[in-house]
Amino acid sequence: MVFYRSVSLLSKLRSRAVQQSNVSNSVRWLQVQTSSGLDLRSELQELIPEQQDRLKKIKSEYGKVHLGNITVDMVLGGMRGMTGLLWETSLLDPDEGIRFRGLSIPECQKVLPAAKPGGEPLPEGLLWLLLTGKVPSKEQVNSLSQELQSRATIPDHVYKTIDALPVTAHPMTQFATGVMALQVQSEFQKAYEKGIHKSKFWEPTYEDSMNLIAQVPLVAAYVYRRMYKNGDTIPKDESLDYGANFAHMLGFSSSEMHELMRLYVTIHSDHEGGNVSAHTGHLVASALSDPYLSFAAALNGLAGPLHGLANQEVLLWIKSVVEECGENISKEQLKDYVWKTLNSGKVVPGFGHGVLRKTDPRYTCQREFALKHLPEDPLFQLVSKLYEVVPPVLTELGKVKNPWPNVDAHSGVLLNYYGLTEARYYTVLFGVSRALGICSQLIWDRALGLPLERPKSVTMEWLENQCKKA
Length: 470
Ligand SMILES: CC(C)(COP(=O)(O)OP(=O)(O)OC[C@H]1O[C@@H](n2cnc3c(N)ncnc32)[C@H](O)[C@@H]1OP(=O)(O)O)[C@@H](O)C(=O)NCCC(=O)NCCS
Hints:
By secondary structure, this protein is an all-alpha fold. Helix content is 60%, strand content 2%.
């Protein structure tokens, strides 16, 4: 019965998708899960040959088709607008935001299995979707939850490696160090050393990726408890799903915080391929570095303030507003504070984006969560005020391409409300979630045999000469 209800919901969404085919025609939209198989690896095994043929066909039939011209602005502007990567798991539309395998965030909230009726999606369901392009059943999600639980163990040397760092080291440094220490277990590295045939590369990559996804919450929780709770760690609870268990190991037991963590892990997982962390993971993996090496590199990119660290910066900035002006700050005062930030040569964290040109739907769904659960929270009300005040100021600046809030503008106040107040830790949560997206694509990189990434670079002299000739 549940299956048929979800099929009918899916067919409604599918007909809407046909109307929106301009947005979603490049993705395998909403394949209804017909198989009852509970094993994700077998699902992938079935899908891979079909997708390998598809890629071969694209190469042979369209290999010489032009996708646009490269301008000097693009070369000097961080490759903005240059199409140059294959990334199967998600696609970003500048106005509409992210779609995971064709599904927008509200659609994921409707069709992915939840822990309770009408609740937030379980991240395991999103992982299944990212890997297969199919919406899983609740049974498949439960089975994947158990698989991840069974893989969630950490060798002792990982904790010792983290302990070798000062407890004051930035949480992202401790987290990335832990991930690097996990690398000694890499199945891919072992198989490569034994001379595995390249057609089988995806198999140990799958093992590493699933182990890594299962292990990162434990490493992250260890860092949190080490830094902020005197090293008093909390063992995993095998009865809980991925998001709830992560919150539990951090020390949060309320069902609302469990829901928040499910939503958080789901929406931060993937944002197509060109953002700094995803691109770094993909680039490093293109040298056949294993998932641990690739993901640790991605984390180092995520730790930059223009990317993942912005979530830390937002809460610290909001707290500085409150410290200076109080919680009941007027819009005029807030506007002055925003100008003061800009005039001191800083960015307003949580606003703007390299690709998006409208409010980030990841912001919107967190706002909806706040409206439902914490409408009276003073910091949430301040975030709402910022939504009104900041965009006109950034627009007035005249150079900002997107004055609207991004995902990071909201996440901190939600976490802060439930007691996770240590802003310097926030990017680690983002990192745990990113493992789902980066590792899913990495498995497909190997299955599709994607090549070493090696774009051409040029000097200023080369550019000057080329432009004079043009
Ligand atoms: C995300 C971000 C790095 C995108 O950068 P981008 O693609 O270069 O953005 P733009 O093309 O709009 O930038 C044009 C100019 O506006 C500035 N700008 C963009 N967003 C800004 C912001 N939130 N506050 C102040 N200035 C901003 C840029 O710094 C740049 O200035 P410059 O020409 O003097 O170097 C940028 O918007 C930013 O720094 N935002 C704040 C940090 C943040 O929230 N990061 C998380 C992103 S998910």
